[in-house]
Design a protein that fits this description.
Layout lengths: L2 E5 L2 E3 L5 E8 L5 E9 L6 E7 L4 E3 L7 E6 L4 E6 L8 E10 L3 E5 L3 E5 L2
Parallel strand pairs: 2-11
Antiparallel strand pairs: 1-3, 3-8, 4-5, 4-9, 5-6, 7-8, 9-10, 9-11
């Protein structure tokens, strides 16, 4: 069984910064990519950022220039550094993992709350 554990969520003031991390453990063959989604109240879950094992990245237009995704393949860990945070960034942030060779699988973390408020 594969497990994803997020950490780093919490309360931050507008304009502040916050870093999230997600560590994967369990029966993982190879990691294809890891990423972050978020879901705000009343909204659908949306992709925020994604990074492949080779280092290719994707960012939602809404967070380009604000968020930076990185990873440590040796530790099966992905990070999300968030800066210039706004109240609209408030959401539950979910880590996701796509892994496998010929057949791929998807796993999700339980989510971590990020609240941007003064």
């Amino acid at each position: 069984q594969v497990q994803l554990v997020e950490s780093g969520g919490g309360l931050v003031q507008p304009g502040g910064s916050l870093g999230l991390s997600c560590a994967a453990s369990g029966s993982i063959s190879v990691i294809n990519y890891m990423g972050w989604y978020r879901q705000a109240p009343g909204k659908e879950r949306e992709l925020v950022a994604r990074i492949s094992s080779g280092g290719s990245t994707y960012y939602a237009d809404s967070v380009k220039g604000q968020f930076t995704i990185s990873r440590d393949n040796a530790k099966n860990t992905v990070y999300l550094q968030m800066t210039s945070l706004k109240p609209e960034d408030t959401a539950v942030y979910y880590c996701t993992l796509n892994y496998g060779g010929a057949v791929s699988f998807r796993s999700w973390g339980q989510g971590t709350q990020v609240t941007v408020s003064s």
